[in-house]
Write a structure and sequence with these properties.
The chain is of the alpha/beta class. Helices cover about 30% and strands about 30% of the residues. The strands form 4 sheets. A 5-stranded mixed sheet has the order 3-2-1-6-10, sandwiched between helices. Strand 12 and strand 13 form a beta hairpin.
Length: about 375
């Protein structure tokens, strides 16, 4: 069992949350205050190209320096931290196993048998953990227990551990990024019934993680290689502008909610940049639709109640209306800052950027 990999439902006693991504390193420190939480520090430092790619740290020494820089700018002194691996090559599945198994037998079955059925790579190359959730009676009248299986590539997690050690830090909590995100919107998820699923769509820099959540627990997840960078590149090329990792151009766009508005900036003129960006968004919509259909086809008496948009791309202007129109499902942009009743610098972190703070705030919550 991967002892560094922690259950999404526990907590530790010290440290801060650090989120690594291809575009930025985010650091947050939260602490308890009366009945709520107080945000002591929140810092974001840019990551140069070539340091982090495909969910993996590709230049550990450079990333270690960026982590140290982010902590220094935050004025945080920490020895233990919580962090998260991205969804690429990670597996999250809810599996039923016989209820009569004792803890040792359950561990053996899940880690050495069931895990191998779901992994797209050899079992010995994976770090695997699981969480027992609850008992139920299946259609044959047999009592079973639901187990949440979590796995990711061992070389990914080993690189994370070594990078933080090089930065002078111990990883106290390592989890899948969607778990940290779910933690920040836990109260929002409680509004849905056991027959209603929420679809969490985390649009990051170079990928989007799609997670189907029922009863606050991820039942299925999938990562597609489409993110804000692909939208920005399409936009820049169509407008004959140089490629840039800065999302300022993309963030300045208002996404048309209906197809009829898609290519026009005025009554007659066509905006090639908008049309190119809409093609990328159309591809992402198709992938999202496939994921929802795949899960619903395998689940009886379950319906999708809402799409929750997160990540840097989740805050784009009118992207919620776009998905609502295209998928005929209600979509909303999450606000982890408001959900946790935190006070934040409005000028430094405007409303558009709030959906992108869910992971780092969720990691900070894990520590308090």
């Amino acid at each position: 069992m991967f002892k560094r990999f922690k259950s999404p439902f526990g907590k530790s006693n010290q440290g801060v949350g650090i989120e690594l991504s291809p575009q930025r390193v985010n650091v947050a420190r939260l602490r308890k205050q009366r009945q709520g939480l107080k945000l002591d520090a929140l810092t974001s430092v840019p990551v140069p190209e070539g340091v982090f790619n495909g969910g993996q740290i590709t230049d550990p020494p450079a990333m270690a320096q960026i982590i140290q820089q982010a902590l220094a700018e935050s004025k945080i002194k920490a020895s233990k931290v919580a962090t998260a691996v991205a969804g690429q090559d990670s597996i999250v599945r809810l599996i039923p196993v016989p209820a009569e198994l004792d803890d040792k037998e359950l561990r053996e079955m899940v880690l050495n048998h069931e895990a191998g059925l779901y992994l797209p790579y050899p079992r010995e190359e994976a770090d695997v953990d699981y969480q027992k959730l609850g008992y139920f009676i299946d259609e044959d009248g047999i009592e079973k227990v639901q187990v949440l299986l979590v796995a990711t590539r061992k070389d990914f997690t080993d690189t994370y551990i070594r990078t933080f050690e090089e930065a002078g830090l111990q990883v106290d909590v390592l989890e899948i990024s969607s778990f940290a995100l779910i933690r920040t919107i836990r109260e929002q998820l409680r509004q849905f019934s056991p027959q209603e699923a929420a679809v969490l769509v985390d649009i990051e820099f170079d990928s989007t993680e799609i997670a189907i959540i029922v009863n606050g627990v991820p039942q299925f997840s999938r990562t597609v290689p489409i993110g804000t960078y692909q939208m920005q590149i399409a936009l820049s090329r169509a407008m004959n502008l140089p490629a840039s990792r800065d999302m300022e151009l993309l963030q300045g766009m208002t996404i048309p909610s209906t197809p009829m508005e898609g290519g026009k900036t005025g009554q007659t003129s066509v905006n090639p940049g908008m049309a190119a960006m809409m093609r990328v968004l159309g591809e992402l919509t198709d992938e999202l639709r496939r994921s929802i259909d795949f899960y619903l086809n395998q689940s009886e008496n379950l319906e999708v109640a809402q799409i929750l948009l997160a990540g840097p791309g989740g805050g784009l202007t009118q992207i919620d209306e776009f998905f609502t129109q295209r998928l005929s499902l209600p979509a909303t942009q999450i606000d982890p800052v408001g959900a946790l009743s935190l006070t934040i610098d409005e000028e430094k972190y405007p409303a558009m950027q709030r959906p992108g703070l869910g992971i780092v705030l969720g990691l900070g919550m894990r520590e308090v």
